[in-house]
Design a protein that fits this description.
CATH class of chain B: Mainly Alpha
Oligomer: heterotrimer
Low-confidence stretches of chain A: 1-26
Order of helices and strands of chain A: HEHEHEHEEHEHEHEHEHEHHHEEEE
Mean pLDDT of chain A: 87
Low-confidence stretches of chain B: none
Mean pLDDT of chain B: 89
CATH superfamily of the largest domain in chain A: Response regulator
Shape of chain B: globular
CATH architecture of chain B: Orthogonal Bundle
Number of helices of chain A: 12
Number of domains of chain A: 2
Structural class of chain B: mainly alpha
Helix content of chain B: over 70%
Number of strands of chain A: 14
Radius of gyration of chain B: 19 Å
Number of strands of chain B: 2
CATH topology of chain B: ABC transporter involved in vitamin B12 uptake, BtuC
Strand order of the largest sheet of chain A: 7-6-8-9-10-13-14
Strand content of chain A: 15-25%
Largest sheet of chain B: 2 strands, antiparallel
Order of helices and strands of chain B: HHHHEEHHHHHHH
Structural class of chain A: alpha/beta
Radius of gyration of chain A: 23 Å
CATH topology of the largest domain in chain A: Rossmann fold
Largest interface: B-C, 45 and 45 residues
Helix content of chain A: 40-55%
Distance between the termini of chain B: 44 Å
Distance between the termini of chain A: 85 Å
CATH class of the largest domain in chain A: Alpha Beta
CATH architecture of the largest domain in chain A: 3-Layer(aba) Sandwich
Number of helices of chain B: 11
Largest sheet of chain A: 7 strands, mixed
Chains: A alpha/beta (421), B mainly alpha (289), C mainly alpha (324)
Chain lengths: 421, 289, 324
């Protein structure tokens, strides 16, 4: 009996103490957990996303002059007595088990009201399950594995379009290029990295090619972080492809381009799948050798002609970090705004209220820095209004070339051979 | 099958294999003298790459010019690592040694991230860039230079060990540390020399790679596993063996990847490794026990 | 310590472990306890081969992965309960262990270690490209069925007790081996293989026995991991870093000792979690630096692990007592 008594006191103390603090904090800050790869091979990307999330939180809390975005007036969330957003970062190291552990810690110890993350699809997979079990909303701004929204989770929301849509975009683009510009791609080669993302993309690319009548002559899933990509490039050369579709992270993307040049592999076009190719470092490193590469994107700086918000936000970020936004950071940024918008509409930090508000999200495209029609989730938690664009590197800058109705420049096709530049 | 492409693949494999050999030689020397497998070896390579990168970025000194400086720096680092950590576990059981060098590996990666951020870096437009085309065969100049440089460095190490008094002393310590000690060869200095030399080899390989390979804190991991295989294949502690094994691994990796499937290239190399040590447990050129 | 004292210690330890999750009621802390037990359990499994027989394998993740994949594939494809899948996985891993042993035990010292790394890495490549088991995309354990039969729970408590049970069973097996003729032979193989051989102990046969037992238990840990995280892919259950961690917890705690892996796991997991939680968010790598410094310090100053260090102190304490 004595032990029981002790136990109940102990439990009461444990339960009461954080509960008390949570109650006290609710008025001034909304705690949101952000789980990203802050050490390990993807740490540079993780840090970039951390910086954009901090910018978004700063805009909501302290305001940003002249930027006409909802919630960017500053002073926190109006419906919650101007409560401020407080981000609590955790490092998942690219390890799904660590991601789950950190999600749990953020929810139970840090008492976050929602989670955002995790960039890596496989970490998002485990971390979101933890959120589901604990009944905490999980907003995923940048993982593109289609599987994530096929799991029938109740607490999972994703703002970015997924791989299926992106690959569809590829073929729509090719079709458009063929019908409107007269360039036909007859022999397509695929070079994707071999983790979950690359492999799933390959699957969809091959499947859709069959359905849409494109001819895949070579499909390679190379081991990520290889010491050399010569075998891969020789295979591509042997395949005589006129179009290359590639999915790579940064290190591999740089190494691949260098190997293409060195081995004289020049298809008519390289259609890259975001990630490494959209990293600022990719263009900085390769300089003019990066030119003419097409990339599927979710964001581009030159879209500012359609949407002044893009330039304003980008300028703000560039002033602080001396580099532009990119597809990854723009998505993380948007993710936090979507989450903040839902919490504000919920008018409460109760998980169920936030979840309900998220499911009722309806943000029009002109309030986003993305080229999307808006944000609206379906029953699976997938944003149905997202879309991809295709950009091309021209003179070292990404320019939007597709869809043609929002293109800022005409595309250059075919890309010149390496010795004729 | 297109013979041109096959020949091209073969030659590319030889070129990268020569660099593997140099990385492995460093690992092999350390093992040969101390019987310690250095799990932090790839990190020496990483530091070599960073030293090349910073000298290039800050002082506009080309990697080819700063190579001796980087080698010296890595030599000092290797010797210091020996002095402050390895020396204390020289006679500890194998598991403690694995544990310690594994700790060093994580430490070095952490330090690199702390000092230089996790960003990917590259040396752009160094003296060696571009490519040459000979009879329809393509060669990247950075690859050629790296391969030639690696062979020269490996040759220099061989010469040092086999043709100088200091090298002979090192070799004597490797053969029998007690006997060498009795002959007046101080083991601790020899061990420090081995670590310095081993790190310098990896560092030089890092500099040679830096002209075409992206630089980031975890870059060593990619090369470590290959280096382990090369060392075991060539025979622990055997410089010439490492050279041949490096070339074999490079060729098998590139050619095997080309013929069987790039997704399996690492598995192909590792399978070859297992097969070879089943047939010749002491490695291709190792001394039989 | 007299046997009686030791028994009291063990019984009270067990009692403490049973009530611990009621004292530590924060699920996040409970999660830490589960991780400690999980890594301790696979550490004990590793210790049977690495510690007692002295065959340092850095490819043990292969068995862990086989366990995780077997139970998950059986669950996803035919709806078999992970409890049965776990045992099947253990048996499959044991046979695979025999195969690996048959190949690798001809190698000595570092060659053995290298060969085991190679085997595990090859396995990772094969699983990454094996569409039938999800390939690189991995496998999800369905959430819709919960409870003991499905081994999926919302609360931490059942996981804690399963981890504790697995740990206890593995430890018991290890203890039984230590006490039996097997333990005697194992030590003989480790300490003096030539003498063991001359006494008629078949080195390879007993090493094979050890690797089969060791892989069986490592596989159980893998199945448990899959049920706990509900997602597996080659990048999480077949990576060499996990093999290294299995050996690290054992070496840190005390290699070749019964409770070494538990002590090591509590410490290593604690350090890992603490450094990452406090400093990991900064993205500066300071957590890695501290974690690594501790590992190096232990390797240098306490090469016999924490248990060895404590024993040393106790021995010294006794000596001074005797002197006084």
């Amino acid at each position: 009996m004595c032990i029981q008594k002790l136990r109940s006191i102990f439990v009461a103390a444990l339960l009461f103490a954080p509960g008390f603090f949570a109650g006290a904090q609710a008025q001034e800050e909304i705690r949101i957990g952000a789980i990203y790869p802050l050490t390990g091979a993807a740490a540079s990307t993780g840090l970039e996303m951390r910086h954009t999330l901090e910018l978004a939180a700063d805009m909501i809390n302290n305001g940003a002059k002249g930027i006409n975005m909802p919630l960017a007036a500053g002073g926190g969330l109006p419906n919650l007595k101007n409560a401020k957003i407080r981000l609590i970062f955790a490092d998942h190291q690219g390890n799904p088990q660590v991601g789950a552990t950190e999600a749990e810690r953020l929810i139970l110890q840090e008492k976050v009201v929602a989670l955002i993350g995790c960039y890596f699809s496989n970490v998002t997979a485990t971390a979101s399950v933890v959120a589901e079990r604990n009944g905490i909303p999980f907003l995923n701004p940048e993982s593109s594995s289609a599987k994530l929204t096929q799991r029938k989770l109740k607490w999972f929301f994703r703002t970015t379009p997924h791989d299926d849509l992106f690959v569809h975009n590829f073929y729509e683009f090719l079709k458009d290029v063929e019908t409107k510009k007269g360039f036909k791609s007859q022999r397509i080669a695929i070079l994707n990295e071999n983790t979950e993302w690359g492999v799933e993309t390959s699957r969809i690319q091959v499947r859709l090619a069959k359905e849409l009548g494109y001819n895949i002559v070579e499909s390679i899933n190379y081991p990520a972080k290889s010491t050399q990509l010569t075998s891969e490039v020789q295979r591509l050369k042997a395949s005589n492809a006129d179009l290359l579709m590639q999915s790579s992270y940064l290190g591999d993307a740089i190494l691949a381009m260098k190997t293409f040049k060195e081995q004289g592999f020049a298809p008519k076009a390289i259609l890259a799948n975001d990630a490494g190719f959209s990293d600022t470092e990719f263009r900085r490193t390769l300089g003019k050798d990066a030119n003419f590469v097409f990339s599927r994107e979710v964001w581009a700086k030159d879209l500012t002609t359609q949407n002044p918000l893009i330039k304003q936000v980008n300028d703000l970020y560039a002033a602080k970090h001396n580099t532009d936004f990119n597809g990854n950071s723009a998505r993380s940024f948007t993710g936090l705004f979507v989450l903040a918008d839902a919490i504000n509409r919920a008018g409460s930090t109760a998980p169920e209220a936030i979840r309900k508000a998220l499911s009722e999200t309806n943000i029009p495209g002109n309030q986003l820095i993305m080229p999307w029609s808006g944000v609206k989730f379906d029953a699976a938690g997938q944003n149905t209004l997202g879309r991809g664009i295709i950009v091309q590197i021209q003179d070292g800058e990404f320019v939007t070339v597709w869809p043609f109705d929002i293109a800022t420049k005409d595309l250059i096709w075919p890309m010149p051979a390496w010795d004729k530049r | 099958m297109n013979w041109d492409i096959l020949l091209q693949t073969l030659l590319s494999g030889i070129l990268i294999g020569m660099v593997y050999a140099l990385v492995a030689v460093g690992l092999s020397i350390i093992y040969g003298v101390m019987e310690i497998v250095n799990f932090a070896h790839g990190e020496f390579l990483m530091f070599g790459m960073y030293s090349s990168f910073w000298l290039f970025t800050l002082f506009a000194l080309d990697p080819m010019l700063t190579l001796p400086l980087s080698a010296l720096f890595l030599f000092a680092l290797g010797a210091l690592v020996y002095r402050f950590t390895i020396k204390r576990i020289a006679s500890a059981p194998m598991v403690s040694q694995i544990f310690a060098t594994f700790g060093l590996m994580i430490l070095f990666r952490g330090v690199a991230q702390f000092l230089w951020k996790p960003d990917f870096r590259t040396v752009e437009n160094s003296l060696v860039s571009g490519n040459v085309v000979v009879g329809g065969l393509y060669f990247g100049i950075p690859h050629l230079v790296a391969a030639v440089g690696a062979v020269l460095a490996t040759g220099a190490v061989w010469w040092f060990i086999n043709r100088t008094r200091l090298g002979a002393a090192l070799e004597a310590t490797a053969q029998d540390k007690e006997a060498a000690q009795l002959m007046g060869i101080p083991s601790h200095w020899m061990f420090a020399l081995a670590w310095g030399l081993g790190a310098a080899c990896a560092g030089v390989a890092g500099v040679l790679l830096s002209t075409f390979f992206p630089i980031f804190p975890e870059v060593g991991a990619t090369f470590s596993l290959i280096a382990f295989v090369v060392v075991a294949l060539g025979g622990f502690g055997n410089v010439t063996g490492a050279l041949w094994a490096g070339i074999i691994v490079g060729v098998v990796e590139v050619l095997g990847g080309f013929l069987i499937g790039p997704e399996y290239k690492l598995a192909i190399v590792l399978t070859l490794f297992l097969l070879v040590i089943i047939v010749r447990p002491q490695g291709l050129m190792g001394r039989a026990e | 310590m007299t046997p009686k004292q030791r028994n009291t210690l063990i019984v009270s330890g067990m009692g403490f472990a049973l009530v611990l999750p009621f004292i530590v009621s924060n699920p996040s802390h409970q999660n830490y306890l589960i991780l400690v037990l999980m890594f301790a359990q696979i550490g004990v499994a590793w210790n049977i081969l690495g510690g007692y027989v002295g065959q340092v394998s850095l490819g043990h993740v292969a068995f862990f992965g086989i366990g995780a994949y077997t139970s998950t594939v059986l669950l996803v494809s035919v709806g078999l309960s992970p409890w049965i899948g776990m045992l099947i996985g253990g048996v499959v891993a044991a046979f695979f262990g025999l195969l690996i042993g048959w190949i690798c035990f001809r190698f000595k010292g570092h060659y053995f270690t290298m060969a085991t790394i190679a085997v595990a890495e090859i396995l990772q490549v094969l699983f990454t490209n094996w569409e039938g088991v999800g390939g690189a995309v991995g496998l999800y354990v369905p959430l819709d069925q919960q409870g003991w039969w499905a081994m999926v729970f919302n609360s931490k408590l059942p996981y804690y007790y399963i981890a504790l049970g697995l740990f206890a069973v593995t430890l018991l097996a290890n203890w039984a081996i230590e006490k039996s003729f097997l333990g005697y032979y194992f030590r003989a193989i480790k300490d003096d293989p030539e003498a063991a051989r001359s006494l008629g102990v078949s080195l390879t046969d007993y090493k094979l026995v050890a690797i089969a037992i060791s892989s069986f238990f490592a596989a159980l840990g893998g199945s448990f991991y899959a049920q706990k995280e509900l997602f597996i892919d080659p990048g999480s259950v077949l990576v060499t870093s996990l093999s290294i961690k299995m050996s690290l917890v054992t070496i840190l705690g005390g290699i070749g000792s019964l409770f070494g892996p538990l002590v090591g796991s509590a410490l290593l997991t604690g350090i890992e979690e603490a450094t990452r939680q406090i400093l990991g968010g900064s993205g500066m790598g300071i957590d890695l630096i501290i974690y690594a410094s501790i590992i190096i310090a232990v390797a240098i100053y306490y090469p016999t692990g924490i248990i060895g260090w404590v024993k040393n102190i106790m021995r010294r304490g006794k000596k001074t007592e005797g002197g006084a």
